[in-house]
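Input.
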Amino acid sequence: MWPEHIGPILTGATGFLTAVAGLLSARPRRISAQLQECLEDRERCEQERDLYQQQVLIALRHIFRLEKALTLAGKKPPARPEGLDL
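Output.
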């Protein structure tokens, strides 16, 4: 009775160990791919941040020039919003 059960038991154990080994070996690659994706997202976000920061500085310079032009023309520029009091 035992010889007919040992073969299937060993086959099942081998299949189980192969599956576990496959999962464990795929995990570091998946984490590495996720890390690379996060680094790419971070780089893209930093580039977008730099672009937006440049646009804000350009807008502030423009506002300053407009206020100066209004003042030189003898007109009072509108009050700045609370966050832009410089």
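The mean pLDDT is 84.
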